[in-house]
Design the sequence.
DNA sequence: AATGAATGAGAATTCATTCAT
DNA sequence: GATGAATGAATTCTCATTCAT
């Protein structure tokens, strides 16, 4: 699946898979540590235990290596998140578990997640599009879970896209701002606190009343969008 | 203020300011469009209307240009956001306005905000630290506003750091995922929808009850952080 | 031996030797003709028949090329001079032959010898030290030969260091001032004349008597050192 | 005198002299310390207390600065050495004093003397020729003194050019090899030891007899030139 | 298939020199 | 006369990519 987007001069598919794994693993580490441009193909080859020339048997250009790395992460998301809710049926529990699982996958792939944020622009437009499509797929898992919750009436009728992104961002920002959170919260605390805000809202009942008033009074009447 | 972090061989401060503006403006555009590494100093110089050599009269190395660009954005945040709430006294209104203002500054500097996410790793450690410090400052504006709301009882006693980051992410993700949102929402709609979720919560009353139950039933008892 | 002081990314030692020879030969010619700074790596590469990039496979920086060139000359000295006296046993004859051989090696490497005088300052301190050590080694060959002559009583008890340097300078100055000597003397004549002065002294018997008197009468009594 | 070889756009001769002195003094120090190519015109200007542009009012190109520096040294030689023997009449004493004086001027201008050795090649051919002519002039002082000694019979009939150079080298090598001599000899000791060798010869009487035999027996009959 | 030496285009940076003020 | 900002040619060095073995 991953392979099909990147061409190789080598025939044997097993070998391709094996070598690509070596290369992607090495590249993920190096790109994460030093960034895409600071990492040379020689670096990658060396860490992968092959020669520089060999890398080019499995990849047409350096950017392909980045693409493979990013696709790898997204594929892990797409595999692991659905697996986490396989056995669950309650819509709200499924939604909560998705977020929980998402955060945990991100935690495991922290470096690569950050890499995805940093490096997408390093890709050519077609490759970037490919990545965005994969990302959208992952988000659809969330969106569908939200809609399911709305259907059973546990989630309000609000903008699904926005909430989807907010939930995704909960996961991603654990990686993006880990330098900030790490010293203050455990992952579990972080997940709980994030869900608490997003699900129950930050305001007290008094606050919510006031919030509604302020919104109505807003000189930007077109703001009211939820539904 | 920005200048003091980067050395220049030119003496005249007015000239420094003028030229640096030319350079930073050009660099912001190019770095945003093509990324830091794909942009050459010659590109920047040309767009800035000076020679390549001249750039080096105002900057010691290429990385300094990136630093100046990033500092510029952060400084705009630090200036414009406080200005937006100058005349307001109501804590909740201040908090809402901060988020609103933050989103609008980000919208204006969309490219540079994305750049900041992508390029911080391209900086040397000292320069990266400098950026993080500036970022933290902006966040303190939000944190203080949240605390003020808590003091008057309109915001629940929840983890301030997490909510701070969530609000910041509302603003940042408008830039980060603009390719996705742009076609679906206006900025105003986006702000309203985001605040609605974060302030009022995504769940219905039924949902909240269920949410509390699920949390209590969770096999990760340590998850429950302050309600 | 030469190689061990300069790093190379190429593994094959035979290839290293071969390519380094190409590079050093080309560089010796160009550095001698135009000087170190006026010669570009591209010039060297071209004359060596390789690409500029290839030079950097065998050398880490331009200065390394200079180092290799200088070490080459000194190594030739260290090889050829001892060889010339291998079969000789008479101390005075050995000393004379050393000077003769030294002059002839210098003559063959005239350009590089001058280069050594001119370019040592272009080296980094560590590399400069390395060169000076090699130079000192060559001089020890002379010093030992002088001492051997003193032991059998054919050389007076005088300052060995000074005489060593004077003999070395006989050789070096053939290269340094070749523009002056070339039109007046052959190498053989130059060697004979130089040895004649240094060994037999410039003065007549009358002169020597007078020299002793003048020295004694000198108002710088601390001058008299020989012995 | 010095000035006439280098053009200036400034009219006032006194000013030219004053500024050139500033520039030459600064350049002498910097060229000696760091070499010609490692020193920038800005460095020179700064140390001279003027602006970079000003240097170019008194000099057409960077090489001119080097020329002025070298001419300065040679001129000092040409002034100070003759002055030292003004009052002396005895030929041998004059010769000895010339060498003594030469060594002392060199000692005072050690850095610049080394510079002259290192940097002549950095000059254009015409400028190099100019330097060589000046050098020849200084040597003629020595040559004339040697011939005077030969005329009164205190110096043997030997090759005057060679002895001239040997005496000059006594002085120069004090500068060239100061890193070696400094720790072993004082200047006075060095002068005395050098003159002792060159004037009285390195060999004992036994040595000289043997030397003559070896020379006659030499398989290079064309060697015998002196006398 | 694998290697790793070779290539050469390309980029950052420096600095002699000029010139408007 | 003096200044110092501006220029841009030139140079070192890197590295993705190729290709003979």
Sequence:
């Amino acid at each position: 699946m991953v392979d099909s987007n990147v061409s190789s001069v080598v025939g044997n598919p097993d070998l391709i898979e094996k070598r690509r794994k070596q290369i992607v693993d090495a590249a993920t580490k190096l790109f994460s540590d030093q960034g895409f441009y600071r990492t040379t193909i020689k670096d990658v080859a060396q860490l992968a235990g092959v020669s520089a020339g060999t890398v080019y048997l499995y990849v047409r250009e350096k950017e392909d290596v980045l693409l493979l790395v990013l696709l790898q992460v997204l594929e892990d998301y797409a595999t692991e998140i659905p697996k986490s809710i396989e056995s669950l049926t309650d819509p709200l529990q499924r939604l909560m578990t998705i977020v929980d699982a998402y955060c945990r996958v991100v935690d495991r792939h922290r470096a690569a997640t950050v890499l995805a944020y940093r490096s997408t622009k390093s890709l050519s437009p077609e490759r970037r599009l490919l990545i965005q499509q994969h990302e959208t797929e992952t988000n659809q898992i969330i969106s569908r879970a939200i809609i399911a919750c709305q259907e059973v009436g546990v989630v309000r009728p609000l903008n699904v896209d926005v909430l989807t992104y907010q939930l995704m961002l909960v996961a991603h920002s654990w990686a993006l701002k880990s330098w900030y959170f790490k010293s203050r919260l455990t992952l579990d605390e972080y997940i709980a606190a994030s869900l608490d805000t997003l699900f129950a809202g930050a305001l007290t009942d008094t606050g919510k009343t006031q919030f509604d008033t302020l919104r109505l009074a807003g000189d930007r009447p077109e703001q009211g969008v939820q539904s």
Remarks:
- Chain D touches chain C through 68 residues (CB under 8 Å).
- The two ends of chain D are 40 Å apart (CA to CA).
- Residues 40-42, 52-53, 56, 61-62 of chain D lie near DNA strand E (CB under 10 Å from a C1').
